[in-house]
Amino acid sequence: MKRITAWLLVLAVILCGCGQETAQLSPAVTLTVAVQEGLSSEAMAGLERFCQKIDALSDGEMTIQLVPSPDVLDSLDQGCNLIFASNDEIARADSNFLSYTSPFYFYDYIHLSQTLNSQAFRDLIAEGTLSLLGALPLAAFYDGNSVILSSGPLSFDTADQ
Predict the structure, then answer these.
(1) What is the Cα–Cα distance from 139 to 133, expressed in whole angstroms?
(2) Considering only CA atoms, which of 109, 91, 86, 95 is closest in space to residue 158?
(3) Into how many domains does the chain fold?
(4) CATH of the domain at 45
(5) Range of 49's domain?
(6) Which of 1, 20, 90, 142 makes an SS bond possible with 109, Cβ 3.0 to 4.6 Å?
(7) What pairing do the DSSP bridges indicate for beta strands 29-36 and 82-86?
(8) pLDDT of res. 7
(9) 9-21 pLDDT, tens per residue?
(10) What is the strand order of the sheet 146-150 is part of?
(11) Chain segment 95-150, per-residue pLDDT in tens
């Protein structure tokens, strides 16, 4: 009887070892993006499409939650991961952004991208008031109005934009 019990125990251990490992699922990440209240319907449609694309590309591992805010600059301090704001709004923190409100400042998207990704611009921003927010420009759109800022030290290759 002891021999049969021992064999059954060995068999049970072997069978337990043959089971499939459970896949470790990483928790889904939700990033909050503060957007200015009163944003145009076109801008909101673009942001919603951006959110859908992030969700699709990440297979639901990352989602973006849009949060309307009366003061997007304050939203970074309130825990938002990103803000979507006009240059006018960002100029409240750093007046250097007022120069980017001019519609004729850039010749085209390539010129805009080269300017905003230049070391001179990064140095200017790092020295300015915007650095007090702990924020850096993440992306710019060639309409002369909007940029995305992050509360973290993010840097993206312009080829990815």
Answers:
(1) 17
(2) 109
(3) 1
(4) 3.40.190.170
(5) 27-160
(6) 142
(7) parallel
(8) 44
(9) 444 445 555 555 5
(10) 62-69, 29-36, 82-86, 146-150, 136-140
(11) 777 766 665 566 677 777 788 778 887 777 777 656 666 666 666 655 544 555 56
Identify whether 141 is part of a domain.
yes
DSSP letters, the chain, are -HHHHHHHHHHHHHHHHTSPPPP-PPPPEEEEEEEETT--HHHHHHHHHHHHHHHHHTTTSEEEEEEEES-HHHHHHTT-SEEEEEHHHHTTT-GGGGGGG-TTS-SSHHHHHHHHTSHHHHHHHHHSGGGGGT-EEEEE-TTSSEEEEESS-----GGG-
User: pTM for this structure?
Assistant: 0.52
Report yes or no on 154 lying in a domain: yes
Using an 8 Å Cβ cutoff, are 153 and 84 in contact? Answer: no
The token duo for 57 is: 């590309």
Bridge partner residues of 64 (DSSP): 31
Cα 119 to chain centroid, rounded: 22
pLDDT of residue 118: 82
- Asked if residue 21 belongs to a domain, the reply is no
How far apart CA 48 and CA 79 sit, in angstroms, is 20
Query: Which residues, at least 6 apart from 100, have a Cβ–Cβ distance to it below 8 Å?
Result: 87, 140, 144
**Which residue's structure tokens are 């803000």?**
83
Measured in residues, the chain has a length of 161
